[in-house]
Design goal:
Blueprint (H helix, E strand, L loop, with lengths): L1 E5 L3 H13 L3 E6 L8 E2 L2 E5 L4 H4 L5 E4 L4 H14 L4 E2 L2 E2 L4 E2 L4 E2 L4 E2 L4 E2 L4 E2 L4 E2 L4 E2 L4 E2 L4 E2 L4 E2 L4 E2 L4 E2 L4 E2 L4 E2 L4 E2 L4 E2 L7 E4 L4 E5 L8
Parallel strand pairs: 1-2, 1-5, 2-4, 5-6, 7-10, 8-11, 9-12, 10-13, 11-14, 12-15, 13-16, 14-17, 15-18, 16-19, 17-20, 18-21, 19-22, 20-23, 22-24
Antiparallel strand pairs: 3-4, 24-25
Amino acid sequence: MEILIIGAGGVGLGVMDAIEKNGKYEIAGFIVDTLPVGSKISRYEVLGTVSDLSHISNDIHHAVIAVGDNWQRSEMVQKITGLSKNLNFVSVIHPTVCIGSDVKIGDGSILLAGAIVASNAIIGKHSLLAMGAILGHHSELRDYASILGGATVAGNVRIGEYSCISLGANVINKVSIGQHSIIGAGATVVSDIPSNVVAFGTPATVKRSRQEDEKYL
C-alpha cells in the first residue's frame, strides 16, 4: 500500500524513516506547499501541494500529516478532509517504539524512534510522540497534542487537546494539563496547569496566557 507524507520538516523526515523501517507502507511521495513539484526530499519526489490532493488521492488512499505544530496539524486535517474523501489518515509507529499492553492509539498519530508508551495509556487522534518521548501508564494524550523529544510524562497524567510538552520537560504523576497549553523545554511540572497558558521553570509556573492558534515558543 502506498502512503503520502504531508509535510517535509523534521517531523516529515522522522515519519519517512519510520515508514521505511516499519515496512507496512510504500512512500509514494511528499505533499508540500513550499517546494516545486518534482523536487526531491531524500529519495522521494514532491508530488504536489495540499490543493492537488483532490486528484492525487484518486490513486493513493493513505496519508499521514507530518506537521509538528499541533494547531497547524489540525487545520491541515480540516482542509484535506474538505478536499478529498478518499484519503485515510493512518498512524505511523517507528519499529523501535516500545508499547505496553492495552494501549490505545488514535488514527493519524505519529510515534517516532525510541518513544515509550506504558500500559493502559491512551493517545488521541493526530497526536505526536517525538524521538525518545515517554508517556506513562494510564496517562492520556488527547487529540492533536504532543510530547517532544526527551520529555517524560509519568503515570495517570492527563494532557488536553492541542497542548505540547516541550523538549526535555518532565511531568510528575497524577497531574492534569489543560487544552492549548505549552510546557516549556526542560520544565518540571509538579502541579496542575490550566488551559491556554505557557508554563515553564522548575517547578513549572504559569508565565502568561496564549491564544489557541499561537505559534510555539
